[in-house]
Amino acid sequence: MLKVRWMTFVAVCAALLTANTVLARDEAALIVLGQAVFLEQSKGNCIACHAISDPQAQLAGNQGPPIFNMKLRYPDKRLLRAQVWDATRNNPLTLMPPFGKHWILSEHEIDAVVEYIYQY
Amino acid sequence: MLNFRKVKPFQGWITVALLLCATTSVLADASEPLIDPEADRQALRAYYLKRFPGVDIQDYINGIYALDAASREQWQALEEFPPYEFDLEAGEALFNTPFANGQTYAACFPNGGVSIRQHYPYWNAAEGRVKTLELEINECREKNGEQPYPWKKGPLAQISAYMAWTSRGQVFDIKVPADDAGALAAYAAGKRFFYAKRGQLNLSCANCHLEGSNIFIRADLPGPALGQTTHFPVYRSKWGELGTLHRRYEGCHRDTRSDPLPPQSDAFRNLEYFQTYMSNGLPVNGPGARK
User: Fold this and answer.
1) Which fold has domain A2-117?
2) Is A54:A120 a contact under the CB 8 Å cutoff?
């Protein structure tokens, strides 16, 4: 009996551990995608207007503010996502393209870029 | 810290934009007396005087080189051996070669086609549309039994360059007759085009060339809206050849990810009418050279 319980415990632990690494791996993959969305001209091209302190982000433009202190400035991540999805909600005349509303990026790519900038 | 950058000009731009939007939307119901090109021109000048106080208004004919010292230096080096010189020679030869029927370009234009660039584009009341110099060059050809040239580059751009050259230093004097509803509507359409959001990227010309002038978009610096058309046609290093204003319009239009309109379309001629009116008081300096 004791032995069975012990084995269940081990099995559950193992399952949880793998689940965790899978989650971590998913998140890492999301951030890799998010970086590509940020940097590549055919995707978000966010770098055209925003500096970010990622060493890979060279020759950034400065039409928009630098991406900085995101966690502090957007404690609610959903508001950050909303800014990326449709910047015209906050400022109708904004230069920033409405990435979700105009189908410039997929919902998944938006999740990814939000995850990526949330680190900075 | 970069956050403080350009806060002031941005607010200034909002004011200008609101004013302009206010006028544009009112005139959409055809209350023509409210269209006031001269007030728009003064507002644009005032905006730039305030935003870049050290820059002489006359210098805006040099586009981004009026604002950014680094690119100005490269450009001055470029202008030492103007890359458009061969085009000017070719343009002069083309202009002076009679058509098969013995007629000439000179006969199609006032003052023999010399020193007239500053009056283009203009509102042609009889035809009810804006006429550009390029449009009339091709009309001249067709009237004399020749095929029209393609609009964006080549011989048409060369002839236009030569005609601009003979007008260098003349001051732009575009007229929008206040008693002509058609002219006012064409001007208003051009103005609306400039300020309207377009394309998948939801960008207006003004986003980059008013609010965004002299601020980096990736490695590019958009130039100022004021004086943007005075030096066309332009030899652009990126093209490696001479091109017309409407060729440039097409490229910038595409940057908003919308289907570009054809050169010499109504929309582009009206846009040129509006933009050149904004340049009134500035000298012709075409052809120009740009990166």
Assistant:
1) Cytochrome Bc1 Complex; Chain D, domain 2 (1.10.760)
2) yes
